[in-house]
Amino acid sequence: MQSPPWLPSFVWTDYRLAVLLMVLFPLALLIWAFVQKNNTIQHLLAIYWRVASLLLITVYLFIGAYPIGFISGWFARILIPLSLWFWVDLNEEVVEQPKSWLKLTFTSWRWAVSVYSIVGAIAQIPWLRCAFLPSQQVVADQACRLWLVPPWAFRELFNAGMKPYTLGLLAMLALGAYVLCLGYFVFFRLGKQGRSATEQ
Predict the structure, then answer these.
(1) How far is Cα 189 from Cα 194, in angstroms, rounded to an integer?
(2) Helix crossing, 25-35 with 101-123: angle to 10°?
(3) Which residue of 24, 25, 52, 94 lies most exposed, with the fewest beta carbons within 10 A?
(4) Rounded to whole angstroms, how far apart are CA atoms 128 and 164?
(5) What letter would DSSP give residue 188?
(6) What CA–CA distances, in Å, run from 180 to 41, 84, 142, 187, 192?
(7) Alpha carbons 13 and 8: distance in angstroms, whole number
(8) Are 26 and 49 contacting, i.e. CB atoms less than 8 angstroms apart?
(9) Helix (H) or strand (E) holding 96
(10) What is the pLDDT of residue 160?
């Protein structure tokens, strides 16, 4: 399938925004919350990082040209806003905190990353079809292949010594572990824990 001329710029912009909003900013917030000893924001960010690890798994799935990466990346954009707003107790604790630059920055980031994730999930719907193509066809399809290019560039920077197939296989194992952990939470812990992040 021929890709529209604007798609390469769109893909690279999306990846750059993802690095900024979903990696660098929350990492800085986590360090800031740790320094300020803000346990509530630390707790929310710890939950965020566990959920957002699916994005890293997706990058490595794309390095190996595994089509399932299109589904895992799409689900990550759905799960991330849920992880940030689902917990009633943590939401109340954030609201009740006195005004501070940390609280304002965290709240602004939480809204920004939620809007970005939801808009991104909607925008990526046309490319979910790539998830149902064989790997060779994903690489051959110009529109699908464009989403693999930034992860391939990432590999050249950080994992140049490892074969794409090996990295993709490791990502598949990580995806399996992620799905098992998520399934355990949904089917066993959620019923007992409800929307309380601190209830054991």
Answers:
(1) 8
(2) 160
(3) 24
(4) 22
(5) I
(6) 26, 21, 33, 10, 18
(7) 8
(8) yes
(9) helix 88-96
(10) 83
Quote the CA–CA distance of 174 and 56 in Å, as a whole number: 10
Q: Which residues of the chain have pLDDT under 50?
A: 200
To the question of pTM greater than 0.85 for the whole model, the response is: yes
The domain segmentation of the chain, as residue ranges, is 7-193
> 185: which residues sit within 8 A by CB, 6+ positions away?
none
Given a contact cutoff of 8 angstroms between Cβ atoms, the answer to whether 73 and 57 are in contact is no
Query: Given this model, what pLDDT does residue 189 score?
Result: 84
Give the dihedral of Cα atoms 127, 133, 136, 139; nearest 10 deg: 0
CA–CA gap between residue 32 and residue 38 (Å, rounded): 9
Residue 200: predicted pLDDT: 46
Burial track 45-60 (b if 16+ CB lie within 10 A, e otherwise): bebbbebbebbbbbbb
